Task: inverse folding
């Protein structure tokens, strides 16, 4: 069995729309959305909540949406919403995104996540779209610092600013966060 990383376990296809109607129950229940995006989504075995969260954040920040015609500058959903534009999102489960075509005309779903796992991840995906958009568009107000906390914060920032740039990423706040250094100073 092939090992698949968790980030490869979320498959999404996006489609720009001016408007759309989707028949939900195959009878009479329709949903309607305006200008925005449709995300078709499927999950493979090994999917994690971390991978779903990463997918949501990427989709909200990627330049996928446009207000005009095809070829206009695409912007992210978050950017358009922050500028006051209405951007609708419709999420459609699409199992075939994780299928494989082994024979002409035959799809195999061997690596697809179980129905229960997929249903749970779908619900989390939809909820995370709302949570992440709200967090990005309406961040909580900054925490009020006491005078002592503010003095400590300012002192630590001044210490970083006073540090020799050649040593900035080798010691102190950024120590250990980078694995290689450009010794040439370029």
Result:
């Amino acid at each position: 069995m092939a090992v698949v990383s968790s980030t490869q376990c979320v498959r999404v296809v996006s489609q720009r729309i001016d408007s759309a109607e989707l028949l939900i129950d195959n009878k009479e229940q329709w949903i309607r959305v305006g200008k925005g995006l449709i995300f078709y989504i499927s999950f493979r075995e090994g999917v994690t909540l971390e991978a779903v969260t990463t997918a949501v954040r990427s989709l909200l920040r990627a330049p996928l949406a446009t207000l005009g015609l095809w070829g206009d500058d695409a912007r992210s959903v978050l950017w358009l919403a922050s500028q006051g534009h209405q951007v609708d999102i419709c999420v459609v489960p699409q199992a075939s995104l994780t299928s494989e075509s082994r024979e002409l005309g035959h799809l195999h779903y061997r690596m697809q996540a179980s129905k229960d796992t997929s249903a749970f991840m779908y619900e989390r995906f939809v909820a995370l779209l709302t949570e992440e958009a709200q967090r990005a568009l309406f961040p909580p107000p900054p925490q009020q610092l006491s005078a002592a906390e503010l003095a400590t914060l300012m002192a630590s920032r001044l210490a970083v600013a006073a540090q020799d740039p050649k040593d900035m990423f080798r010691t102190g706040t950024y120590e250990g966060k980078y694995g290689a250094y450009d010794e040439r100073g370029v």
